[in-house]
Amino acid sequence: MKKLNNKIVFITGGLSGIGYACATAVAEMGAKVVIADLASDKVDEIMNTIQISSPESIFVACNVSNASELSHAIDTVVEKFGSLDIALNNAGIGGEPNKTGDMTAEQWLKVININLNGVFYSMKYELLQMQKQRKGVIVNMASILGKVGFSGSGHYVAAKHGVIGLTKVAAMEYASDGIRINAICPGFIQTPLLSKAGISDHTEVLAQIVNLHPMKRLGKAEEIAQAFIFLASDDSSFVTGTALDVDGGYLTQ
Q: 100, 151 in Cβ contact below 8 A?
C-alpha cells in the first residue's frame, strides 16, 4: 500500500520548483493531486507527467492573492473528489530586493499579497472544508527567512515570519478538530525562484549563498518534497504547529 494512496492533495504553486517536486512525489505515493496555479502554456505538459502516476489529477487556474479564486478552487476539489485530505500552501514569489526605506508600496504589497495573504486565503477555505470532515493536514511553505533576517528582503522575510506565526496559531485552534498544521522552512533551494532573483546567474553571489550553508551546497526541490511527505502522512501523526527546518544547517549558525 502506497503511503498516500487515494489521498486528495491540493497544492498551490505546483507547476514549478518545490511545488512541482511535491506534486510528482505525492502522485507517486498514490495521491490524487489538484494543482492550483496561474494559467500557463506548460499546464498540459506538466499535468501529463503527473497523470502518469495519478491519472485523476487535475489543474485549477488560480491566483492565490484573490480570495474568491481560492474559494472556487477548494469548491472544485470537493466537487471533483468529495473531500480534501492534504493541502500544501506553496505559491510564492521572491520580490524585488530593496532596503526597507527605499521599498515602494507596490514592491511590498506584491510579495505580502501572494506570500502571506495567499497562505491565509488558502488556509481559510481549506479549514472550512476540513472542519466538516473532522480531519485533514495542512502544510505551509515558509522559509529559513521566516526565522532570521536577510538584507534587502524585508517584504519576503516579513511574509514568511507571518506564515510561521499563522501556522502556529491555526495549529492550536484546530488540533481538536483532527486537523494538523505545520510549516516547512527550506534553505536556499535550486529552483526557478532562485534564478528569477538573479542568484543562479552570478557565480560569485551563488558561491556566497552556498557558503552560508554548513553542508556547502544548495538544497534540492526533491529533498523538500520528502519533508512534505513526512508531514502529510501518518508518520507525523503527533506533529502539529512546528516549522521544520530543511536547510543544510543554515540556521545552526
A: no
CA-to-CA distance for 123 and 230, rounded, in angstroms? 20
Closest CA to 92 of 143, 26, 168: 143
The label of the residue with cell 511527505 reads 229
User: Which helix (H) or strand (E) is 214 found in, with range?
Assistant: none
Instruction: Give the helix/strand (H/E) hosting 16.
Output: none
Q: For the whole model, what pTM was predicted?
A: 0.96
pLDDT in tens, 26-78: 999 999 999 999 999 999 999 999 999 999 999 999 999 999 999 999 999 99
User: What are the residue numbers of the active site?
Assistant: 156
In the chain, how long is the greatest CA-to-CA distance?
54
Q: Does the pLDDT of residue 206 top 60, yes or no? A: yes
Neighbouring C-beta atoms of residue 36, cutoff 10 Å: 30
From residue 226, how far is each of 24, 68, 158, 207, 214 by CA, in Å?
Answer: 11, 31, 26, 26, 20
Question: What is the torsional sign of CA 3, 36, 172, 245?
Answer: positive
Residue 189 pairs with which residues in a beta bridge? 219
Whole-angstrom distance, CA of residue 91 vs CA of residue 83: 21
